[in-house]
Specification:
- Helix content is 29%, strand content 27%.
- It has 248 residues and is of the alpha+beta class.
- It has a single domain (7-244), classed as Creatine Amidinohydrolase (Alpha-Beta Complex).
- Strands 1, 2, 4 and 5 form a four-stranded antiparallel β-sheet that branches. A three-stranded antiparallel β-sheet has the order 3-12-11, with no helix packed on it. Strands 6-10-13 form a three-stranded antiparallel β-sheet, covered by helices on one side.
- Helix 1 (7-30) crosses helix 2 (37-50).
- 49% of the residues are buried.
- Bound molecules: 2-amino-4-trifluoromethylsulfanyl-butyric acid and cobalt (II) ion (CO).
Length: 248
């Protein structure tokens, strides 16, 4: 069941979303060659706590960290650790803030110093695909219109859309109905209604879309070792179109 959110719930999610967006903005300066992914995680955890938000990923289904730090071939759920970023790396940082019982979820990606043309193209296309998906989040459209638009654009740029991880409804739970696929045919699934809140979070690879998971049970990598990147926003469907909650 897809439960539309009340005005009060949406405003709490917007407050949480602004802190998440502020943290991403601060990360743009913090992330540089030599910084370890564990230092990034500590930065995220401190930022959320200093703004009176709970780092909701920590402890979620046993996930041990406040953030996911996914470098180069890592698709999502990368474990922060001792790895120090190097010039040319690309990294996605994903986090969820919990505020008075409501969640906001956003992943953003960063170039470490000078990156290859291929990596820059991947980042640019993936970010654009997120906004192409968001444009479809209007009353009357169906859920699969979002993924269809994303897949069509990404594949036209010679890149592939990950299938194994998807967007999701969000509110009092981090993961609620509906499921938001980033691929597939148009005009399927529930019709979008005012007050529905969900994430759109395409993961895009330079190679094939298949993914394999490390022995830690979380870190997902491209099966072929190609590069992967992700951008994610939490948004609400309104009478005036999609309203992004995880921005400043
Ligand atoms: N933020 C993630 C999402 O987009 C959730 C990561 S799973 C966790 O759904 F265990 F790390 F929280
Ligand atoms: Co997320």
């Amino acid at each position: 069941m897809i439960v539309p959110k009340s005005r009060y719930e949406i405003e709490l999610m917007r407050e949480a979303g602004k802190v998440v967006a502020g943290c991403h903005q601060a990360l743009a300066d913090f992330i540089k060659p030599g910084v370890s992914t564990l230092e990034i995680d500590q930065f995220v955890e401190n930022f959320l706590l200093n703004h009176k938000m709970e780092p909701a990923q920590k402890g979620y289904k046993g996930y041990p960290f406040a953030s996911c730090t996914s470098v180069n071939d890592v698709v999502c759920h990368g474990f922060p650790g001792t790895y120090r970023l190097q010039e040319g790396d690309i990294i996605t940082v994903d986090m969820v803030a919990l505020h008075k019982g409501l969640h906001a979820d956003s992943a953003w990606s960063y170039a470490v110093g000078q990156i290859s043309e291929k990596a820059a193209h991947l980042m640019e296309v993936t970010k654009k695909s997120l906004f192409i998906g968001i444009e479809q989040a209007v009353i009357g459209n169906q859920i699969s219109d979002i993924g269809h638009a994303i897949q069509t654009y990404v594949e036209s740029e010679g890149l592939s859309v990950v299938r194994d991880y998807i967007g999701h409804g969000i509110g009092r739970q981090m993961h609620e109905s509906p499921e938001i696929l980033h691929y597939g045919p148009p005009h399927k699934g529930a019709h979008l209604k005012k007050g529905m809140v969900f994430t759109i979070e395409p993961m895009v690879n330079t190679g094939a879309y298949q993914v394999k998971v490390d022995d830690d049970g979380w870190t997902a990598r491209t099966a072929d070792g190609s590069l992967s990147i992700q951008y994610e926003h939490t948004l609400v469907v309104t009478e005036n179109g999609p309203d992004i909650l995880t921005q400043l």
